[in-house]
Amino acid sequence: MLKDFFSKKRKYATVPSEREQPRKMNEGVMTKCPECKTIVYSKELKKNDMVCQSCAHHFSMTAYERIECICDEGTFVELNGYLSSANPLSFPDYEEKLEKDKQKTELNEAVVTGEGLIQGYRCIISVMDSRFRMGSMGSVVGEKITRAIEQAIDKRLPFIMFSASGGARMQEGVLSLMQMAKTSSALRRLSEEGLLYISVFTHPTTGGVSASFASLGDYNLSEPKALIGFAGRRIIEQTIREELPQDFQTAEFLLKHGQLDKVVPRGEMRETLAKILDLHTPDTE
Q1: Which residues are known binding-site members?
Q2: With helix as H, strand as E and coil as C, how does the chain read?
Q3: Residue 284: its pLDDT value, please?
Q4: Structural domains in the chain, sorted by start
Q5: pLDDT tens track for 8-24
Q6: Residue list for the binding site for Zn(2+)
Q7: 179-190 pLDDT, tens per residue?
């Protein structure tokens, strides 16, 4: 009797446990804001230029997302996208790490350069991407930025730089540090030609990048709350034996102390750049 009872086919459905049930929600559908902890749809976040609608926290953007946000649709033409780093110092595992970053980001290096329009104003644009080796500056990053500056000189166009970097790339040693002088020299030539350079700091901009081309703009702008500095906070405090202000090395701190011209929310950046470009565009009439 008991055997017949247990052998009967079940007429009810069972719900598999969480461990047994595959997750139906695709990863990346929702995003949690690290500032206010609000959970939002990733698509809605992207529509809002990667800015939290609850607290205005500025999420990181990829290079192409920023270009799409800033440039007039369909006007950006990439330059020197084929350039890629080698391993000049035979640093262990460096080539493997570069290859992983290429696959992850679909970029050949940590900066994208090109020509485009911003509200009808033509300019040369360079945008760093912190996903690729933390946006570190190696020889190819310096070369691409230098070539972009030279393109601006040749075409008599303004140059706009969006920085996002952890600094010089240690795997390339002194060759990386040389890019500080190389890019700064190119910007000097741009200035001597009377051409405009707008530098935009994004989170984070540190190390050799902040100490070279990022800080040399005719206009130095920044997104809100961006980390900007050379050495780390802990190193500075240990060196000077003093506790630093809580907002030290933020964009707002630098603005207060005269090292930035303006802190611009991402939603206003395109309009702000267009106004500056208009101000420096000769009247052809």
Answers
A1: 33, 36, 52, 55
A2: CHHHHHHCCCCCCCCCCCCCCCCCCCCCCEEECCCCCCEEEHHHHHHCCCECCCCCCECCCCHHHHHHHHCCCCCCEEECCCCCCCCCCCCCCHHHHHHHHHHHHCCCCCEEEEEEEECCEEEEEEEECCCCHHHCECHHHHHHHHHHHHHHHHHCCCEEEEEEECCECHHHHHHHHHHHHHHHHHHHHHHHCCCCEEEEEEEEEEHHHHCCHHHCCCEEEECCCCEEECCCHHHHHHHHCCCCCCCCCEHHHHHHCCCCCEECCHHHHHHHHHHHHHHCCCCCC
A3: 55
A4: 29-59 (no CATH), 60-279 (3.90.226.10)
A5: 555 444 444 444 444 44
A6: 33, 36, 52, 55
A7: 999 999 999 999
